[in-house]
From TrEMBL:
PANTHER family: FERRIC ENTEROBACTIN TRANSPORT PROTEIN FEPE, TYROSINE-PROTEIN KINASE. This is Polysaccharide chain length determinant N-terminal domain-containing protein. Its main location: membrane. InterPro entries: Bact_polysacc_biosynth/exp (IPR050445), LPS_length_determ_N (IPR003856). The lineage of its organism: Bacteria, Bacillati, Bacillota, Erysipelotrichia, Erysipelotrichales. It is found in: Cell membrane. GO terms for cellular component: plasma membrane.
Length: 233
């Protein structure tokens, strides 16, 4: 009598029944909910208690156009100011400016200042905004004030540019701008849910048991003659 040898499994191709995945997810709904809550708590509480808050202070400078004695704005000076905006955004964070700011504010290095300072331009205007973010509200204001004042003085002394005015002075604010507790809590919750889902899928993939008559027939290649029903207690 010839014995039957079952076919070898094809390890290169894994087929997942979406219906089975859905049933498994519903079966492990309590675990998924728990991991989601834990992930959200870890993300939110970890951000709140382990990451120091940061404070911002900003200042805006405006390149004013020349005005004639008759009260008309010089168009040529407006065009010149528009071309000067990109230069201003670059020059305001140059080493010669920031090195003096570092001495005045007690910051360790110019490289550290560059990480804390960002410069933006309002579209279609000649207004440049300097934003400083540090872990000390007073330090943020001091850096913003020193940077703007030093830059304006340098522009007047070295380039004879005197049409730069401060339109929004740095302010002291104790309202933190970071870290984002809610956003990190949401990210943690999504990661927790994702890990739970991955665990369920891996359980299905790694489970090599034959669960019903159809799977047995497909695997063995012979008909199943009888099947024991599942009896509840």
């Amino acid at each position: 009598m010839n014995s039957y040898i079952p076919p070898e499994e094809d390890n290169d191709e894994i087929t997942i029944d979406l219906g089975e995945v859905w049933r498994a997810l519903k079966k492990h709904i309590a675990l998924l909910t728990l991991l989601t809550v834990i992930g959200g708590l870890v993300g939110g509480l970890g951000t709140k208690f382990l990451i120091k808050p940061t404070y911002a202070s900003s200042a805006s400078i405006f390149l004013t156009p020349m005005v004639s004695d008759a009260g008309y704005v010089d168009v040529n000076s407006m065009n010149s100011n528009e071309k000067l905006v990109n230069n201003v955004m670059t020059l305001i964070v140059q080493n010669n400016i920031l090195s003096q700011v570092a001495r005045e504010t007690g910051v360790g290095s110019v490289e550290e200042l560059k990480k804390e300072i960002s410069v933006t331009n309002t579209p279609n205007t000649t207004m440049v905004t300097l934003n400083v973010v540090t872990e000390d509200a007073k330090l943020s204001k001091a850096i913003a004030t020193s940077t703007v004042n030093t830059f304006i003085d340098q522009m007047k002394d070295t380039l004879n540019v005197s049409n730069i005015e401060i339109v929004d002075k740095p302010r002291l604010s104790y309202v933190p701008v970071g870290p984002h507790v809610k956003r990190n809590a949401l990210i943690g919750a999504v990661l927790g849910l994702g890990l739970g889902g991955l665990y369920v899928v891996l359980q299905i993939v790694m489970d090599k048991r034959l669960k019903n008559k159809e799977e047995a027939e497909n695997y063995l290649g012979i008909p199943v003659l009888c099947e024991l029903p599942v009896l509840d207690d």
